[in-house]
Amino acid sequence: MSWSVAEITEEVLSQLPQAVRFTAEDEALLTRFAPSLAELEERLIRGFYDVLFGHPETARILSTGERSEREKALRRWWSRTLQGPFDARYWQWQAAVGLVDLRRNVTNPMMIGMWGWLLNALQGELLETLRLLPHEAARLMEAFHRLAATAQALTAERKAICATT
Ligand code: HEM
Asked: What is the per-residue pLDDT across 38-77, written as a single tens digit (0 to 9) for each?
């Protein structure tokens, strides 16, 4: 049986208990804070690729000349994520990003590790750069953790997606 990316995305999402899913409230919260979060783009994207270019295993995947192209793609991802909507197309895109990364031999440990980096970096930025109140930062981080869990769940299945498409 051959599954489309849309079907696999739907199947992965259906496996996630309600409590771990990104909610309409999460979306509304991100939209409310989007203008401030957009200001973090430069620091987050630079930091992300500093880490990847600074580690031999991940640097081997990237060529020096492609840094600006890679940064541009991640900026587009950040700004689309802040804009919403978090509809079927958005989640299918996350599954597809996993496939694009897979083609370049980006492993699950690399993806999961960088999600962890992103979440920690975000937490620091919300408090230190944006100076949000602790309860606002905590609520936003809850939303980002649900986003991360969903995106990682979709990425974890990319080998299955690949095998069936
Ligand atoms: C939080 C984790 C990650 C996110 C959200 C992410 C996001 C993205 C996005 C949005 C693209 C562009 C896809 C497109 O063309 O539509 C991309 C491509 C790419 N990413 Fe990632 N990525 C992540 C982790 C990584 C890691 C750990 C590496 C390791 C080196 C990596 C290397 C690449 C490469 C090489 C491409 C270009 C693929 C190609 O077009 O040939 N990514 N990624």
From this structure: 999 999 999 999 999 999 999 999 988 999 999 999 999 9
The runs of H, that is alpha helices, within the chain are 5-15, 24-38, 41-53, 56-59, 67-83, 88-103, 108-128, 134-156, 158-164
- 145 Cα–ligand 1 center, Å: 19
> How far away, in angstroms, is 158 Cα from ligand 1 center?
13
**CATH code linked to domain 5-164:** 1.10.490.10
pTM above 0.90, yes or no: yes
Ligand 1 midpoint to CA 135 (Å): 32
Domain boundaries, the chain: 5-164
For the stretch 134-154, pLDDT in tens is 999 999 999 999 999 999 999
102 lines ligand 1 (CB under 6 A): no
